[in-house]
Amino acid sequence: MCEANAYMVKNGEETLLMESVDLVEPEVDGTFRLVGIFGDQITIKGKIKRMNLVDHRILFEA
Amino acid sequence: MCEANAYMVKNGEETLLMESVDLVEPEVDGTFRLVGIFGDQITIKGKIKRMNLVDHRILFEA
Predict the structure, then answer these.
(1) Which residues contact A1 (CB under 8 A, 6 or more apart)?
(2) A52 to chain B, minimum CA–CA distance in Å?
(3) Complex ipTM value
(4) A62 at interface of B, judged by CB pairs closer than 8 A
């Protein structure tokens, strides 16, 4: 499986937002909807800083 | 390997932009830099429409 973990980066520190993210979708209000492989969902306020797919990492920043 | 393929979606049709994308990084000018697993790079004008990591798909739209 090729899901990734999503982190928020603040002052150089990473906080795990969600594990096993399958779907990332921007919403009209500027947030991102993240859906996990089990259907769990969260909404992220922030923007994408970097995605490393081979490392399974999605980094957001405020 | 968990790289993905990147597509541009226009009028409901998908055009392959790049295979085996590892890194996706927004640039200051609003474009996205995509780096493949072999180090090849392209720059995309557009925004992210959706990412399906389990399906290895990143969709951009103009």
Answers:
(1) A20, A37, B54
(2) 5
(3) 0.91
(4) no
